[in-house]
Design goal:
There is one protein chain. The chain has no helices and ten strands. The chain is an all-beta fold. A hairpin with a 4-residue loop joins strand 6 and strand 7.
């Protein structure tokens, strides 16, 4: 991805990344404009959805990830720290409905809608 910022008579260099429309980094005067590459985000897979008795999450950071499942009232119904690239959450005791799984992303948690249907 090429980013260019121009002001009449001056050239600037952006050093940083753009992720989901958010820019991080610094802008400084420079004699040339250089390419800036987006950071590659880990692709997390959540299945099956709808879930019956378990929910599988793959693509996690094996150095440690905090998973949390919330109901639509914002109550945390499951919380688990995982030190592996995948995890299985037991959702068999949950009521049928829609839940939000909080999955760790590059800079913040990403909400994933999960349906539990027995």
């Amino acid at each position: 991805m090429w980013l260019c910022l121009g002001i009449i008579g001056e050239r600037y260099q952006l050093v940083g990344t753009v992720i989901n429309g958010d820019t991080t980094g610094t802008i400084s005067p420079d004699s040339s404009i250089v390419p800036v590459r987006e950071k590659t985000l880990v692709k997390v897979k959540v299945f099956p959805n709808p879930a019956n008795d378990h929910l599988v999450i793959e693509g996690l950071d094996p150095s440690g990830a905090m998973l949390a499942l919330f109901d639509l009232q914002g109550r945390r119904v499951i919380q688990r720290t995982v030190h592996a690239s995948s995890a299985t959450l037991d959702v068999s005791s949950l009521s049928d409905g829609i839940y939000i799984l909080s999955v760790p992303g590059a800079r913040h948690f990403i909400p994933v809608r999960v349906v539990v249907a027995h």
